[in-house]
Amino acid sequence: MIPKLHYISQGNSPKEHIENIQKACSAGAELVQLRLKNVSEKKYLKIAKEAREITSYFQTRLIINDDYKIAREVKADGVHLGQLDACPITARKHLYTWQIIGGTANTLQDCETLLGKEVDYISLSPFRVSATKDNLPTTLGLNGFKAILDVLKTETPILGAGGITTKDVKVILETGISGIGVSEEITKNFDIIKEFNKLLSASSIDEQRHTF
Questions:
Q1: Which of 9, 50, 113, 121 has a C-alpha 20 to 30 A away from that of 76?
Q2: Is 0.85 surpassed by the pTM of this model?
Q3: CA-wise closest residue to 79 among 68, 94, 95
Q4: Pairing between β-strand 31-34 and β-strand 5-8 as defined by DSSP bridges
Q5: Which tens digit of pLDDT belongs to each residue from 133-185?
Q6: Is the distance from CB of 72 to CB of 95 less than 8 angstroms?
Q7: Integer Cα distance of 183 and 185 in angstroms
Q8: d(CA 27, CA 148)
Q9: How large is the C-alpha radius of gyration of the chain?
Q10: Number of domains in the chain
Q11: Quick check: is 212 in a domain?
Q12: What are the C-alpha distances in Å from 189 to residues 70, 81, 124, 168, 196?
């Protein structure tokens, strides 16, 4: 099972990313994604090793953004590949069998392509305009999520991401989305992880009620 809440690391420097990952783990994050941009591979590897040490201590899962080689080297729990990154099929050949692969999607076609490449989860984004990314594709909102999920009908977890706050969780889950990726809202206040977890687990208790 893939945790329903993914904290996507944020910071003005690699050091800040590490500090924020530590805070997220301390606050109860079950999974963090190390998302460093514009750093050398050597630097990324060094930071990834530090992130792995912290997450191992807290028994938190670690996903590395973009780089499957680093994910393999530090024995992270998996890799998250953006649309301009390596193909999941290529990454799969290099990773350990237990490592998971996630992919970013913005359209129904993106999702279908990723499912064809047997990713373990899809991050559908952006829900709304987010300050953490430049050159964003079309904002999807609730209607976009619902339109894609209605057609997709897959057992593969689909997460929503992009500017999501606690106020959005309940309505987002009603679209069929199974979890969320959050960066900014958590970085502003790590204590909010508990609230996100409560909202997300309330939804899974509802699901169990309907199942029996």
A1: 113
A2: yes
A3: 68
A4: parallel
A5: 556 678 999 999 999 999 998 999 999 999 999 999 999 999 999 999 999 99
A6: yes
A7: 6
A8: 33
A9: 16
A10: 1
A11: no
A12: 29, 27, 24, 17, 12
